[in-house]
Amino acid sequence: MFGAAMRGKGADMERVLVSACLLGSKVRYNGSFRLDDHPILARWQLEGRIVQICPEVAAGFSTPRPPAEIQGGGDGHGVLQGQGRVIEQTGNDVTDLYREAAQLALDLARETGCRYAVLTDGSPSCGSSFIYDGSFLGKRLAGHGTTTALLEENGIRVFSEDRIGELDDLLTGADPAGPGA
Fold it and tell me: What is the pLDDT of residues 99-120, one digit of tens each?
């Protein structure tokens, strides 16, 4: 379910890899979802553009699960290079599962021809503009999660849920700067 591509109408359209929690699926660490019924995502679903995934669930994580944050190596790029670790609040090291989650997302993006992704910001997997600092105190820092890092290292451009409109403009050829820009 969380790695399935929609078939049909969108075969000729640009496909977009999208976090399942942004589509109303209750797959986040605390069993919640992030967005539901976003108008652009709803239109993309009708157009057949969306390839849905929850990288963590695809890698075998349960829902709910303990919160996890990146420690000791910056962000997801550091984790992929072996410099950082992903640690659950319980102290359990889940680095290997986060690396596997990133690889599964990349494999799905490649299989379905996705050059773009919309992933949940703040996540140690999907964060694209910020992640949490590893202290479990809610402190943010600029950086990428492991899935975002791997996707971007492989030429797939990642947008946060706050930038869906920007990606839609890119996909539809609209000029977000307006005429004469």
Answer: 999 999 999 999 999 999 999 9
Q: Residues of 90-122 as b/e, b for ≥16 C-beta within 10 angstroms?
A: eeeebbebbbbbbbbbbebbeebebebbbbbbb
Q: CA 169 to CA 130: how far, in whole Å?
A: 23
Strands of 50-53's sheet in order across: 50-53, 16-19, 116-119, 157-160
pTM (whole model) above 0.85: yes
Task: Give the burial class of 153: count Cβ atoms within 10 A of its Cβ; 0-12 exposed, 13-18 middle, 19 or more buried.
Answer: middle
Residues contacting residue 101 through CB under 8 Å, at least 6 positions apart = 55, 56, 58, 59, 61, 125, 146, 147
CA distance 60 to 84: 21
